Structure formats: C-alpha cells, structure tokens
C-alpha cells in the first residue's frame, strides 16, 4: 500500500492529531510529517506530538515554504545509488521480511561460487531455508577462497549420500520408460536429483542455471513433475525489478511461437505467478506486428476471458518499441505477455 508524506506549516502542528485521525479514517497511511517555514517548532509543541513520534511517525523540519517542499518531494528520486550499500541492504531486508521464511529452496550447482554466495545471502536474511546439493568440503573450500561467510543453519547435502533413496521412486514416476540402472545414471545429474526432491514435496523450489542451460533445467520437470492438469503447456517468466514497479515477462524461454490459445494460457500462468508473489497483475499483450495484430489480440482476449469466466484482468495491446526495458531484450519472442504491476489502470494504459 502506498503511504503519504504530509507537508504543513509549523503553525499547524497542534492539529497533528486531526490530520492523523482524518488520514486513518480514510484508510490513508502516513509515512511522515514535514514541518515547513523558517521558524522551528516550540519544544512545548513538540512535546504535544510525542505520542505520534512514539508510534513511529517521522517528523522533519525544513526552512522551505510548504509549496517549495512539496515541489522538492515530488521531484525526489526513489532510486538507490549504486554506492549506497547501506540503503540497498535496508530495502533488501525489508523485502525479505515480507517473504514466507518457511520456504525450503534447494540450490543446485552447490559448489559454484555465485550459487554459494546467493544461498548465504538468502539464508542470512531469512528469505528462504536454503539447501545446497554439493560435497560439503567443496562448498567450504569455495567459501573460504571467496571470503563468503556461511550461516550455521545453511544445509549442505552430499548428493552421493541420498541418491540411492530416489531410484525406486523415479522408476515409478517414469514407469515403462526407464529401469533402475537408467534411473541411477540420470540421478548423477543434480538437476534430476533436485527435481525428484521437488516432485516428492521435500523442497518448495529449486534454483538452477548457473552452469546448466534452460533445456537441461526444465527437462527433468517435464518428465517427473509434468504439466498441471488444467494446462496444456509450461511457460516461463522473468521478473524485471524497476524503481516504481515490477514487470513480469512471459514467455521468454520455453514457447518460441505460441498461437492465440497458447498465448492466452501463458497470460493466465504469468498473472497467477505474479499474484503468488503479491503483485496485482495488469496484462498487456505486446507484438512486433501491426497489420492483422488487432484480430489476433481480439481472439486472444476472447480465449483468455472465456477461460477465466469473468473479466478479471485488464488487457492492452502495446507496441514493443514503446517500452524501454523491452528494447534491451532482443531475445523476446515476436508475441509475448507483459504483466504490469501498476498503481492505476491509467498507468497501465500508458
């Protein structure tokens, strides 16, 4: 929810409780109070505000006028400079505090330096309970060489000690397609082993890709977990984190040339994924084409709304050239889904 900063002259400070009550009654959270004009508030007046201050409401003072202050705040950039590591760390910790800490995520390629560092950060910040699939001594050696501090509760599992536990279950999941000898051989791949753990609900997700291709990462999921019953395909998404909003791009890795029905399914999957991460989705269909694209989008919208049963989502057709972040992704397919996290429908339309 968006919070608001209130700018008022010092003389109005005695009405603080009225401002606060009015904002609360209208469901408007106050992020802070800025007192304007040259003279600082009287200490006795500030004493009157102690209850608000104790409840966490920041109160600042500036010699600028109310109008000048409002202009300055309106033009204030909320981007974090690359060298402001302290604020970046605060933002990261705030985000991690709103994530379910019970998520158990396993990271494959457990002895790869970037994977080890990511696991250490996620574990220490409470983003997820991480499991590294790797030889413990290899992880410790890399961590020591890279000066990475491993949290004491970070779990490291030696694949050689658990691999045999999944042979019989893998044969059962792929009944008629492989025997125990073949299953044992495939389980040498930590992607396959990790996917088996995911298929059996022993973990909530897996992270791969540092040294594996997309195909090698998703193929075991197709074979062992399979497509959800209500869908005919599997799609992928990218989360693009911008200063004021989040874009979810789909599908950029799995389905290279979807038709209208498949793109409608991808749109629903992308929106559902966005909702799972707390994003209120607005769906935009983007395309390079111009001539008959209107007819394609009409068919697409009809198919999607028919599946949903009710018009839950808001659709737009957007020129791919009009969205700056997309220009940087030449690998985007000709027809794609863009899920927007916007403050209003007007923002999405623009």
TrEMBL record:
Transmembrane residue ranges: none
Domain Phosphate acetyl/butaryl transferase: 109-300
Keyword Transferase: yes
Matches recorded under InterPro entries: DRTGG, P_AcTrfase_dom1, Phos_Acetyltrans/Butyryltrans, PTA_PTB, Ser_kin/Pase_Hpr-like_N_sf
Span of domain DRTGG: 24-74
Gene3D superfamilies: 3.40.50.10950, HprK N-terminal domain-like
Domain of life: Eukaryota
One Pfam match: DRTGG
Gene Ontology molecular function, alphabetical: acyltransferase activity
Keywords tagged on the record: Acyltransferase, Transferase
Record bears the keyword Magnesium: no
Record PANTHER family: PHOSPHATE ACETYLTRANSFERASE (PTHR43356)
Protein name in UniProt: Phosphate acetyltransferase
Lineage: Eukaryota, Metazoa, Ecdysozoa, Arthropoda, Chelicerata
